[in-house]
Design a protein that fits this description.
single chain, 159 residues, alpha+beta, three-stranded antiparallel β-sheet, elongated
Length: 159
């Protein structure tokens, strides 16, 4: 998954997240930035509350957080989700000089984005497409690929 810093930038630049099972996120600015959470049907879930969509924590006994609004957390997209966002624009992911190189087609021009981690290289390419208005939205059936490659069929009603 991308770094916390890049995840914040992606969110702030308009990357939309429709929470689905096995998605990974963190809670910023509450002393929990170094902890990641995974949406699952057992302990962390998405529910509709009076204030809107909320991420609920069921059985979290070590601290008292029952729920938090969707807009208050930051999604940490996985490599699979970032590749899905890049779609047909993704040309290749290679290694060169100790870095991952994500090559994408940006309106007929081939551009490289480099980072020491593959996820961040993908994330930088996604950020560039966001800034250029070239990012296609995720297809709901395909954007729920979790950190272990599992797929789910998320319910997007209410989002």
């Amino acid at each position: 998954m991308v770094s916390v810093e890049l995840a914040r930038i992606l969110r702030d630049r308009g990357l939309k997240w429709r929470p689905a099972q096995y998605d990974v996120f963190f809670i910023p600015d509450r002393g929990l930035d170094d902890r990641v959470f995974v949406l699952s049907d057992l302990t962390v879930d998405v529910q509709q509350l009076a204030g809107g969509a909320a991420i609920t924590f069921n059985g979290a006994v070590e601290w008292s957080l029952d729920s938090i609004l969707h807009g208050e957390v930051v999604w940490l997209p996985t490599e699979a989700q970032l590749r899905a966002l890049l779609g047909e624009r993704l040309v290749a992911l290679t290694r060169a000089e100790g870095e991952y190189v994500c090559t994408v087609d940006v309106g007929g021009e081939v551009v490289e984005y480099r980072d020491s981690g593959a996820s961040n290289a993908y994330g930088q390419a996604v950020l560039a497409l966001l800034q250029l208005g070239l990012l296609d939205p995720l297809v709901p059936e395909l954007d729920a690929i979790g950190p272990f490659g599992r797929e789910s069929s998320p319910d997007y009603s209410g989002f």
